[in-house]
Amino acid sequence: MQPEPLTPTLTEPAATGLPEKDGTGRPPQHATLDELVEVTTRVRAAVESVVSGRPGLAWLTVAVLLAEGHLLVEDVPGVGKTTLAKALAKSIDCKVGRIQFTPDLLPSDLTGVNIFRTQTNQFEFRPGPVFNNIVIGDEINRASPKTQSALLECMEEGQTTIDGVTHRLPHPFLVVATQNPVEMEGTYPLPEAQRDRFMARLTVGYPDQDAEMLMLDRQEAVSPLAHLSPVTTGATMLRLAELVRQVHASPAVKQYVLDLVGATRNHPSLRLGASPRASLQLLKVAKASAAMAGREHVLPDDVQQLAVAVVAHRLILTTEARLNGVSAQDVVAQVVERTPVPAGRR
């Protein structure tokens, strides 16, 4: 048996596979707002070349990446959830791992396992697919809650602990998970703590007829993913994320975020409101959205446009509200409508 360490051990950060210098051999320069707009426009165009007709999906996906969060994509089968995740991964030159969640999947299948080597008479750690920059979790709610919970430490702290040894994950680290509605056969509802780790949830939806016709033309002979090439690197996205953290949010905008999130905690249709993590992540992704629009400051409009995607999936409705057909998205939209906007801003 492997002896248990007396105290948890912290390993060195995992290699990101990202270059520390640019192509000239010099250390990378600080990112500028113009560069951010240019790079994110290329990434969005790459994603939209595969998932056409729904530009809002690409915008939110890239905003979550810049805000260093995680994304949950939910909808019925066949609308392009996994394709969206793959398109984002292929547009950025970094390490990508994919996990197909199934009912018999074990936590060690995600995080890795220690294997005893008879040649050396020692245990050797074999890392799992979470040791990548972008992790695609396909149909995450088909795995048991125990397996889903293995991602909690990874998503929140950027590390995983196995047999008392803590292993750092590479940076940047983004989980893009897809899930089917809980009404579908063979699904488990995500635990509340797991949902709260996702910065935003988006619904792909059905494309309109013109977009679906374009999809038929593009994919008649070959998948567009086969011709998708990286348009930026993980190292560049790290520099842009640092710039996003410097975007200005006034005290009035921060108070507006707190007012929106706080209103969910006293709403009569909700049994559980949004957590303080929701306030933090709503502000982060609003900063990313403002930077993508070429602004160095956050507007209330940025917060309003992202509120449903960031807050709704964290809420738990009362039984009466569910029976009356009320959705969490309806509640957030109502809160946005009723919460006063800071004076001087629309």
SSE layout and pairing:
Layout lengths: L8 E2 L22 H16 L6 H12 L4 E4 L6 H11 E2 L2 E5 L6 H5 E6 L4 E6 L6 E5 L6 H4 L2 H7 L1 E4 L2 E4 L5 E6 L12 H6 L2 E4 L5 H10 L13 E2 H12 L5 H14 L5 E3 L3 H17 L7 H12 L4 E2 L1 H5 L4 H11 L8
Parallel strand pairs: 1-9, 2-10, 2-11, 3-12, 4-7, 7-10
Antiparallel strand pairs: 5-6, 8-9, 13-14
Strand content: 15-25%
- Structural class category: alpha/beta
Placed side by side, the strands forming the largest sheet appear as: 4-7-10-2-11
What is the overall shape? globular
Low-confidence stretches: 1-27
Oligomeric organization of the protein chains: single chain
Number of helices: 14
- What sequence of helices (H) and strands (E) makes up the elements? EHHEHEEHEEEHHEEEHEHEHHEHHEHH
Counting DSSP E segments of at least 2 residues, the number of strands comes to: 14
**DSSP helix fraction:** 40-55%
What would you report as the Rg, rounded to the nearest angstrom? 21 Å
Describe this structure in words.
41% of the residues lie in helices and 16% in strands. The chain has 14 helices and 14 strands. It is globular. The strands form 5 sheets. The chain has a 5-stranded parallel β-sheet with strand order 4-7-10-2-11. Strands 1-9-8 form a 3-stranded mixed β-sheet. A two-stranded parallel ribbon has the order 3-12. The chain is α/β, with parallel strands linked by helices and 346 residues long.
